[in-house]
Write a structure and sequence with these properties.
It is built from 1 helix and 8 strands, in the order H-E-E-E-E-E-E-E-E. By secondary structure, the chain is mainly beta. A hairpin with a 6-residue loop joins strand 7 and strand 8. It is elongated, with a radius of gyration of 19 Å.
Length: 158
Amino acid sequence: MKKLFLALLLSLFLASCSDSAESPVIEIAEFFIKGDAKDYSKDMASIPSLKVGDEVIVSLKLDGNGENLGTFMVKEKEKQLGIKIDLPDGASSDPNFTKPEEGIIGFKDGVHVTELRMKARVQTVADADAILTFYLSSKAECESAQEMIELKTEEDKE
């Protein structure tokens, strides 16, 4: 009987999450390569291969879908890129939650939507492409959002 009650309680909790709180959303608002006027955000497949020294500028719209934003994080698996994040409006100043040098931004209560701008400079070229992965959580008890950008890199042939 206890197992049935717990299963019922868990299903109600999960259903209430999906009814009352949508997962947060990450939208690529702008994507530029420094020195190139084209905004690649609507045509990510056309991004050219990048070489050491190339810099990309990315603007992301972060939306908690009606809930307070929790944490934003950016990771780069192959460590080919140098990443710099401009602190967005509503970022927490608490060093326990906001560590831009580590790609982590925490948000103050009451922030539901903001835009974040970051730069990534190609520092090395490896066999694998550079992949930026963004994570966004809200303070609701729902799934986090994830967005990935694959950046092809190549050696400079000069």
